[in-house]
Amino acid sequence: MLEALGSAIPLAFAWDNLLWIVIGVVVGVSFGAIPGLTGIVALALLLPFTFYMSPVGAMALLLGSYKGSMFGGSISAITFGVPGDSPAAADVLDGFTLTKNGKPRTALNTALYSSIAGNAVADLVVIFTFVPLGMLALAFGPRELFALMFLAMTALLVFVQGGVLKAIIGAMIGFFISTIGLDPILSRPRLDFGITQLESGISLVAFVVGLFALSELLMQFSKGFSNKKAGTDEEETLKLRNIIRQRSPDDYFPFKKWLRRTWRETLMGSGIGVALGALPGPGGTMAAFSSYAFASRMRKNLGKFGTGVPEGVAAPEAANSATVGPTLIPLLAFGIPGSPMAGIFMGAFMLQGIAPGPGLFTDYADVMVAVFIMMLAGTFVNLFVSKFAMIPIFSRLGLVDPRILVPALIPLLVIGIYSINLRPFDVVLMVGAGLLGFGLRRLNISLAPTVVAFMIGPMVEKHFRRGLILGAGDWTYWFASPIALGLYIAAIVLAVFLLRRKKGAPDGMGIPSGEGP
Amino acid sequence: MKQTVPDSREKYDRAESVSYVVLIAVSIGLVAYIWLQPWAYFHTADGVSLALFPTVFAVILCVASIIGAVRKAMHRDNSSLSIEDFDLSMRPVVLLTGIVLVSAFGLWRIDPVFNFTALVLVVLLVEGVRDWRLLVGMSVLTGATIYVLFILILNVYFPNVWLS
Hints:
The structure holds 2 protein chains of 2 kinds. Chain A is an all-alpha fold. Chain A contains 22 helices and 2 strands. In chain A, 71% of the residues lie in helices and 1% in strands. The interface between A and B is large, with 61 and 65 residues.
């Protein structure tokens, strides 16, 4: 690969390839920031255009869009309380609370810096260790993946506010809803209640957006938007004009302050994101929520998460963004796309006539080295575009009175959800999930276990049943793997240690229910 | 002097008890529904199949709800919840009904741009906004955004759309 560096550098720094990165970042951030649209929609829209581009240009466009959309989803979560995608849901917990407290720029700057840091760390790890990371990913079979998800869910259930029992209730609701649709092994429809549209299962985006976003809007609507003191209409109109010109002096969070306050959470989140991003399946959502859960347990953060602290934004954002590069590892190293996003990249490679897999770095070494350089370049382009264009716009939008903003968000949500599959039924699903989320919030049941359980439910079942088939009735099969055994022990130790600590701790520790202060 | 529990606290405790009862009823109903399905595994007797996982989750939900209800009854559940935040307002239900109705007409009958513009206007009026600049500005801006973004740029297909 080092030999290819000489020919890769002119490829990477060609003006047209750099331009494609900028365009990709702008499109990705914009799509991610609009409630109802997601990063994968942006990628899917850009994919056909890559046919007419060079391989490096195509990758530059898609990588820029992917990286931009990671932060874009957080913009929507922080500014409107509407996660742009499911991993960004973890940003709502503290990020949107910061916005409600009049500090949207603090939250957005924290998310941006942590996103860039997570991205950069992951890119460097991918570039230098993608082969051993790929081998590690291969070592994870069904029992190891099941054990990993067991650990992640245990951590989540123990960390969440409101008690373990309510967390279990929320998780079981999520798991149960995830069973609606096709059986993951036999591919037969189940629990569709006779509704044809449910045979393929519940749409992920409709469910997550409804559960988090619509339920948040309903909560605000039911309380009469009492979170903010609204002025008269004339005062609000004047405030709208002033918002464009100025910002609150308390809402100041420069880079040095971010570094001093959140370097631990960002580093930890980056590590979790790299580890989980490389594995097929778990992805950004699990990384974001796991990182949030672990960070909430740091001594300095005890009792603060959920009240609107930058650390609560840094941890999940770094983890989510750190999954970008590693998600591509199974694809680049073995030709196996581990996520829908990786699947689109695979499509782009195929359009260029390149088969991803072990031969990539021998037959197309200069192209791949150029792509690695693009990955790093895309991270910094994302920094500048978001810092100087997107944050100034969206931080001001966050200060707008919600009773003016919320009615405008609802149509965007509805049409955004409809436009994904062109199915009006998805709107019905979103409304149903919104009602469910509203009910769970009222009962102070955290939404985090519900959404994570919904996301990983099919994978949990698939890996467990595959393990049963491979084990052929031998229960010791589950503990014969040192990786799996280690993960189970870690889960038990974590649960016992944290539950004992929680007994003597102040109220309100852990992941909040989502209602906020 | 004997201290009495405030009315709002009693209302809240009753509501939480009701919610546990509802959860228990829902989970029992789910288990019964799943059990009555004509699953293939009753004939093949292969153990783990379509019926197992939904049933497992429904049973755990039932057990957790029962434990929660029992603990509540024994006053051992000390989850920290805001008593003041118990609001039986019907506004969310009205809003959801409005969303479903407008979606039905906006996506299947007339035009989403006009119908959602009208929805924004109505919701702003319900929220007490009376400044015509805000009313007209936000409604028109929302409609224009839908038209430009979804119809012109993304070419999303809406049946029976006038503007496309």
